[in-house]
Amino acid sequence: MGIGEHARVGAGREAEILAWDDGSVLRLMRDPNGMESLERQAAAITVAKQAGCPVPWAGEIIWFEGRPGMVMERVDGPDLLSSVTQRPWTVVGSARLLARIHHELHHVSAPQSLPETREVLRQRIQSAVPIPKHLAAFALDVLGTLPDGGSLCHGDFHPGNLLLGSAGPVVIDWTGATRGHPDGDVARTLFLLRSGEPVPDTPAPVRAIIAAGRRVFAPLYRKAYSSRRPIDEAAIARWSIPHVAARFAEGIEEETDALIRWLELRFAQHSDA
C-alpha cells in the first residue's frame, strides 16, 4: 500500500502521522535523512515508558516510500491545546496537568544515547542563518555558562504535544528529546507557551484564542511546575536566550522579527550590566 492508501491522522513540522495496522500509527518523518532522529525518539520513549510516564509504546522503525517511520501506539483524542481552546474554563486544570507531567518526565534519567541539550542548542545556533552574528555570539556565550544535566528533556513540551486519550494523557512528538537540565526544558516550554507560532494549518479562530490564552496559561504552568520542583528564575532567564536563538534554525519566518527584537533587548541589557 502506498502513502495515499493510509489515512493521515495528524501532522506536524517534523513528521506526519498515518493510520497503520492493528490500530497503530506510523510516525513518518518528512526528512528522508531522519533515521537517527527516529532512533533517538525511540530511546526516549522507551525509557519514559519504563519509568511509568504517560507515553505511547514505540514499535519497529521502518522505511516507507523513501522515508523513515516508526510504528507507534495510536491514541485517539484531542490534544490539550484543542481541548482548552474549546473549553477555556478548564485552563487552570490544563496548566496543572501539563506541569505535573513535565515534572514526571524530568525525574527520568535520560539514556546516554540521547544528545546533550547544550550541544544540540550550540549546533542549532551555529546553523541558524537568519540570526545576526552578534546575537548568535551572545547566545553561545550565555550557553557556555549553563549547566549540564542527566534528566530526560522532551525539548518541545507544549499543550499541542499532549494527547487526551480515553485511557489518560499521552506525551507525543519526541523529536527534540535530549539529556540535560530540567530548567532548560522548562525555559523552552515557557517560550513556546508565550510566543511559539502555531503549526501552519491552525485555523484563524483558534489562533486568536491561543493568542488571548497565552497571558493566562504560561503563568499558571510556571506556578504549578514550581510547586513541585522550585525553579531558579535567573536560570530560566539565561536558558531562554540560547533557546530563542536556536529557534531560528527551525525556519519559522513568521517569528523572525519578534525573535530578533527579543534577543536585541537581552543583548542590550547584558551590555549595559
Q: Report the order of strands and helices.
A: EEEHEEHHHHEEEEHHHH
CATH superfamily of the largest domain: Aminoglycoside phosphotransferase (APH), C-terminal lobe
Q: Main beta sheet, described?
A: 5 strands, antiparallel
Q: Identify the CATH class of the largest domain.
A: Alpha Beta
DSSP summary: helix tally: 9
Query: Hey, roughly how much beta strand do the residues contain?
Result: 15-25%
The tally of domains stands at 2
State the helicity in percent bands: 40-55%
**CA(first)-CA(last) distance:** 62 Å
Order of strands in the sheet with the most strands? 1-2-3-5-4
What structural category arises from helix and sheet content? alpha+beta
Q: Please compute the radius of gyration using only Cα atoms.
A: 18 Å
Mean pLDDT: 91
CATH topology of the largest domain: Aminoglycoside 3'-phosphotransferase, Chain: A, domain 2
Number of strands: 9
Globular, elongated, flat, extended or rod-shaped: what is the shape?
globular
CATH architecture of the largest domain: Alpha-Beta Complex
Q: Any low-confidence stretches, pLDDT <50, length ≥5?
A: none
Question: How would you concisely characterize the structure shown here?
Answer:
By secondary structure, this protein is of the alpha+beta class. Helices cover 48% and strands 16% of the residues. It folds into 2 domains: 3-73, Phosphorylase Kinase, domain 1, CATH 3.30.200; 80-272, Alpha-Beta Complex (Aminoglycoside 3'-phosphotransferase, Chain: A, domain 2), CATH 3.90.1200.10.
